[in-house]
Amino acid sequence: MSKPEFKARSLIETPNSSLEIGFLEGDFGKYVDEEVHKRYARIRGISQIKYDGKIVGKLTLPYGVAVNEIIEKDNLRTATPADLERILKVDESILMQVYFIRHPEWDKKTYPYDSSCPFLFPTEMPFGTISALALSNGTGNLYLAENLMKQVKARNPKEKMPVVIPLKSLKLAKINDNPYEVEFQLKDNAEVIYAPILNKKSDKFCKPLYFKSSDINEKTGLPIKLSKEGDRELYTSKEGGLRGFSLGCSQLHGKQLGWSLDSSFTNFTYSNEPSDGVIIREKLKNK
What we know:
Strand content: 25-35%
Shape: globular
Radius of gyration: 18 Å
């Protein structure tokens, strides 16, 4: 199959760049999915991800990293935490579009704010995207965590944990003698972000942490402090290790819908539904 053109659905302007924003959909999504499966056939965490005729969904960590390997030559990448926060700041409906690719029957003007909607969270989590992995001392994906931590420490012996590493900063290597069949490797220009906020532990099912949108570090896309009256939720893991870092939709304080950050799932062979890939092409402006 010849390489189809990436078709952006939205464009936002920032002081230093413009962001073309799209998804793994249509012919482009089909092409990327086929190339990922050719390169990593039968690899656990990739083999179960399939293009459904509309969009590639339920991304896992290895699949998200593999996507970047396919698209980076075309100046494309999966969105970073900072990219997603920039999008939310301008227009959150851009990230909601992915749901209507799957469910065109829904009225975009009323969803998801209509409380009568039968798909209202927590029955289904309608929006979400993995943008990075979170790495800390702990047991989650232990082999992968220890291997990647060695790489981080080799690059910077003084690096503190936990850290967040955007998927675009990683590559995969096939390894036959480990239980995952692949491992994550840092690219030469990898971005490794110290994330002390993830030391705060939440209870995934009962007690999330809260922070304010105004307390997001724009350069990293991570919150810098917590707030009991915050308008955003944060979920972390008590077990630590190597886990997915995603932006999702949640019920703020158990009532209205809001946007959450989640580093509690291992995300190697399992992904939050739908956990879609947001694709970015960034064009820097001349100063």
